[in-house]
Design goal:
This protein is α/β, with parallel strands linked by helices and 363 residues long. It has 9 helices and 24 strands. The protein folds into 3 domains: 156 residues, FAD/NAD(P)-binding domain; 110 residues, FAD/NAD(P)-binding domain, CATH 3.50.50; 57 residues. 24% of the residues lie in helices and 26% in strands. Helix 1 links the parallel strand 1 and strand 2. The chain is globular and about 60 Å long.
Length: 363
């Protein structure tokens, strides 16, 4: 019986395990997570958990008993430290764990800046969210270090609750996931219209933070894929685990979610997407491959967020050197040859995304 080991008790890992069982896989499944908690969803951390609408345990995806009922062995608080693809072994907490198929879903590690004299929070894990919420509730002003999606979400959440907000960056631009800085001007206008102060060329340094009168400093400076432990594995590592269009990194080893850099068949480029929807789609595709299901098209990279009440969605691949062009009949839909963005236009975006997915990959 094929033993599938998943390193990373994330939404990608849980989705894969559930999909394997739903597709008839009867062999053992082991789900290994470095954190002490049962698997949980990350999007609520910067929303419902942070603002107190949810208690932290509501973010759980599945309890240990629910996974046990599926025949999934959950190991929490267990860190993987090395991989030998030839021997089909991964070392977990110092002991070798054999596998027939290995799936990597280890996510990313956030950048944690040190600012002398200031306490700086980050938001990646459930423990991060709990610690941040305790300070968030007492703060009347927030400095957000970083101008990416999480930074925008945190600024939006702080303004929604009436807090003064300053976003601090160094590049002069705001970015949005796979779209990069192509939406920077629109995002800046949206933030300013909602009372966010932008200091986009100040850099996240002590002097820049000291110039802002803020009760709370939160860093959203991005992160890097958790791949250090794979240094001697022989896998190709380049800002993530490099995979083909099916998620295969090397024989019997797949990668999914934030850590995975899949090949986009429409462009031939490898793309890494940090978003829950993408992680779920990749997990479903790999599960179908492992259970002999019909061939799955590689998921079209997809990303969305909501900032100051505006839902921003993006699908496909984007070229930073090519401007987005608004549709004549729906200016809230913006396009490039291989990508599409919806700006507060969910229905129109769904149609545009379907059109994008129907375009055949180049031969």
């Amino acid at each position: 019986m094929v033993h599938v080991v998943v390193i990373g008790a994330s939404v990608a890992g849980v989705t894969l395990a559930e999909a394997l069982r739903a597709s008839g896989h009867s062999g053992p499944i082991t789900l290994v997570g470095a954190e002490p908690h049962a698997p949980y969803a990350r999007p609520p951390l910067s929303k419902q958990v942070l603002d107190g609408t949810w208690e932290p345990d509501r973010a759980a995806l599945r309890t240990a008993s629910e996974l046990q009922a599926l025949g999934v062995t959950l190991r929490t608080g267990a860190a993987a430290s090395s991989l030998d693809p030839v021997r089909h072994e991964v070392v977990v907490d110092g002991d070798p764990l054999g596998y027939d198929v290995l799936v990597l879903a280890t996510g990313v590690e956030p950048t944690r800046p040190v600012l002398p004299g200031r306490s700086v929070h980050v938001l990646r894990t459930l423990d991060d969210a709990v610690a941040l919420r305790a300070t968030w509730e007492r703060a009347s002003s927030v400095a957000v270090l970083g101008t990416g999606v999480l930074g925008s979400e945190l600024a939006s959440a702080a303004r929604k609750s009436g807090r003064d907000v300053t976003m601090i960056g160094r590049s002069g631009r705001l970015t949005f996931g796979t779209v990069g800085a192509l939406l920077s001007d629109r995002l800046a206008e949206l933030h300013r219209a909602n009372g966010v102060s932008l200091r986009l060329t100040a850099a996240a340094e002590p002097s820049a933070v000291a110039a802002v009168d803020a009760d709370l400093v939160v860093a959203a400076l991005g992160g890097r894929p958790r791949t250090d432990w794979l240094a001697d594995s022989g896998l190709t590592i380049d800002d993530g685990v490099v995979c083909d269009a099916t998620g295969l990194a090397t024989p019997d080893v797949y990668a999914i979610g934030d850590v995975a850099r899949w090949t986009d068949p429409s462009t031939g480029r490898t793309v890494r997407v940090e978003h829950q929807t993408n992680a779920i789609e990749q997990a479903l595709a790999v599960a179908a491959t492992l259970t002999g299901g019909p061939p799955q098209a590689a998921p079209t990279p997809f990303f969305w967020s909501e900032v100051h009440g505006v839902r921003i969605q993006a699908a496909g691949s984007f070229d930073a050197a090519v401007p987005l062009v608004a549709d004549d009949d729906e200016p809230r839909v913006l396009r490039q040859p291989a990508g599409v963005v919806g700006w507060g236009a969910p229905r129109a975006f769904r149609l545009a995304r379907a059109e994008l997915a129907s375009v055949p990959a180049p031969a």
